[in-house]
Amino acid sequence: AAERLANKTILITGASAGIGQATALEYCAASNGKVKLVLLARRLEKLQELKNTIIKDYPETKVHIERLDVTETEKIRPFLENLPEDFKDIDILINNAGKALGSDKVGNINIEDIEGMIQTDVVALINFTQAILPLFKKKNSGDIVNLGSVAGREAYPTGSIYCGCKHFVRAFTQSLRKELVDTKIRVLEVAPGNVETEFSLVRYKGDADRAKKVYEGTVPLFADDIADLIVYTTSRKQNTVIAETLVFASNQA
Ligand code: NDP
């Protein structure tokens, strides 16, 4: 894997926490620091901390951090166009930024939360994909990894919008993979079950007690378990496409 990852440039959306952050670290570990990372999120200070950690452990890793709200559609193409020369030639796009906002019956979900989920989980993922495709097509290579979810396999009550968004991610990934089947561009979906990250805190809008309860009595997956899979799927030989990976914690039904 280290050889196949060497010198790759990897763009991770939502790298300031959780799965995105763990994925950045895992790419460094798996390549012995021989990757270039483009890391973005809204909390620049968290990205700076991550960059410091990476550079301390892997001095040869090149890291570019930038504050970008992925829902600001008009900023995505300029962001890619204005990347420093050294980071422009992206090889792997990880569409990771995503969220659930609240958990409620359809009639009670407010429009801000609905739009927040659709903008982040769906529209931003489409925008990044569209923006990267010309580069990948030009060089006839590149991996796009979309973070789906078990919520994209089976919908549960009070999760209608989030489940809908993640069903979209699966469908979009499948469709694009088939569209690009005659190219060397790979389109992959990693769909986790319950992972202990800031996800529940965001979902319950900072209510730490409620967020904590989500993981009570279970052994959830951790961000580095998912990071490990993302790195695994993108470091297979070119002839292998792990199109979908559904991952459960061992005790999640
Ligand atoms: P976290 O809440 O821990 O991390 C989410 C990341 O996305 C943060 O870095 C956050 O950074 C970033 N982000 C959120 N909104 C934006 C935005 N508008 N612009 C830029 N960055 C943004 O969640 P996870 O790591 O758990 O989730 C990552 C992905 O995995 C998501 O797509 C989620 O749906 C999926 N997933 C998670 C599961 C879980 O149980 N945790 C299960 C299945 C799928 P910042 O706030 O700094 O912008």
UniProtKB/TrEMBL annotation:
The keyword NADP applies. PROSITE patterns: ADH_SHORT (PS00061). Keywords: NADP, Oxidoreductase. One of its GO terms (molecular function) is oxidoreductase activity, acting on the CH-OH group of donors, NAD or NADP as acceptor. InterPro entries: NAD(P)-bd_dom_sf, Sc_DH/Rdtase_CS, SDR_fam. This is Probable oxidoreductase. Belongs to the short-chain dehydrogenases/reductases (SDR) family. It holds the Pfam family adh_short.
